[in-house]
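Batch job 17 of 40 flagged for manual review because the log was empty.
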Amino acid sequence: MIEAPLEVRNERRHHPAVAPAASVRFAHPSERIFAALLDVYGIAWEYEPIEFPLRWSPTGVPSAGFRPDFWLKDQRCFVEVTTAEQRLVTRKNAKVRRLRELYPEVEVQIVYQRDFKALAERHGISVLEASAA
């Protein structure tokens, strides 16, 4: 199991792990909806528990990173939800490719806009409130 180092988890106290969707401060409404759907299905999740360094400065300090939206412990994978316009999705895809290069043992899935919309609509949720992430 991949877990955030204690110092990383302590820094992120405003994102409590394994909390119901209603009690977490999300960066975007689409993430709240996705978390609520995970709750409905009884899927345990953590919100942004770890950031993976992707690039380092010449002195060895991380200069770029990627923090996937959700860690699904029982499925042992990370999920990134993106409902953004294509140019932003391209940037996220590049970060996910880099993550996979550096950390081949880490499983990460991307939920794209069309899939998110279909999932939300299947549950009677308006996608207007979740138009970009």
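Reviewer: the log was empty due to a logging misconfiguration, but the result itself is present. The chain has a mean pLDDT of 83. Unflagging and moving on to job 18.
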